[in-house]
Each structure stands twice: as structure tokens, then as C-alpha cells.
Amino acid sequence: MESRLNDLEMRIAYQDQIIEDLNKVVIELRREVERLNRRVEESENQEDALNLKDLAQEVPPPHY
Questions:
Q1: Average pLDDT in the 42-61 region?
Q2: Which residue in 10, 23, 38, 59 has the fewest CB atoms around it within 10 Å?
Q3: What are phi and psi of 10, to 5 degrees?
């Protein structure tokens, strides 16, 4: 009975460590996703700004 209890305690300790490690990975991945989302947003904003400049500088065709 004591051996079985020790085995269960070891399993729980091992599972607790795995859960903690996985939690750290999830937190790290969330930070990375947030960072990448910010970069995508910045790129989209830059693209929008470039498109607006291009349209403003574009010369209308001669038939206008």
C-alpha cells in the first residue's frame, strides 16, 4: 500500500512539473503571437500609407 502511494505521489509530482513546463511554453507562444500580430499590423499600416502616397502622386491619364 505504501509503495503504491509513493508511486502515485511521484506521478503527481511528475505531472505537476509537466503542467508547469507546458504553461511556460504557452505563455512564451502567446507573447510571440502578440509580437507577430503587432508586426503584421505595422506592416499593414505601412502598406496603407505607401498606397495612399502612390495614389496622390499618380498623374492622371491624358484623356482627363
A1: 75
A2: 59
A3: -65, -40
